[in-house]
Amino acid sequence: MWYDRLPHLNAFLNLASLFLLLSGWVAIRRKRESMHARFMVSAFITSSLFLASYLLYHFNAGRKPYAGPEGLRQVYLVILLSHSVLAAIVPPLAIATLVLAVRKRHARHRRLARWTLPIWLYVSITGVMVYGFLYVL
């Protein structure tokens, strides 16, 4: 079916978000604020596209059971659980962080971004890992 290709797109979007987030972090460390903003807005858009594609896939395909090596099942479940819990909080964190930046509340933006970035990075990395467990192994 057409939606069977969406997990591959989703993994690509997760990986793209990861690189955009890291690029944005490097840009702000180098005091390149406008470049930082472009990378972070791009990461937000990419993650939003991921979420739409993810929901579209699961609406059409349902759930995908783990079929990899039995010895890795527990590792997969731990990664999946932590990924799922943290993935649920990334959208409100990312939106709040972005809104603070747009409103030029830089001190509050930085404080929240110190939590948002590592969680968002973890979700992006583990999203690619979950894809690997389900579609590569």
Secondary structure elements and their pairing?
Elements lengths: L5 H24 L3 H29 L11 H30 L3 H31 L1
Helix pairs in contact: 1-2, 1-4, 3-4
Provide a descriptive summary of the structure in words.
- The protein has 137 residues and is mainly α.
- The chain has a single domain (2-136), classed as Cytochrome c oxidase, subunit III, four-helix bundle (Four Helix Bundle (Hemerythrin (Met), subunit A)).
- 83% of the residues lie in helices and 0% in strands.
- It is built from four helices and no strands.
- Helix 1 (6-29) runs antiparallel to helix 2 (33-61) and helix 1 (6-29) runs antiparallel to helix 4 (106-136).
- The longest helix has 31 residues, at 106-136.
- The two termini are 21 Å apart.
Helix content: over 70%
Q: Using the CA coordinates, give the radius of gyration.
A: 16 Å
- The number of domains is 1
Strand content: under 5%
CATH topology type:
Four Helix Bundle (Hemerythrin (Met), subunit A)
* Separate helix tally: 4
Distance between the amino and carboxyl termini: 21 Å
Please mark out the parts with pLDDT under 50 across 5 or more consecutive residues, or reply none. none
Structural class: mainly alpha
Mean pLDDT: 97
Highest-level CATH class: Mainly Alpha
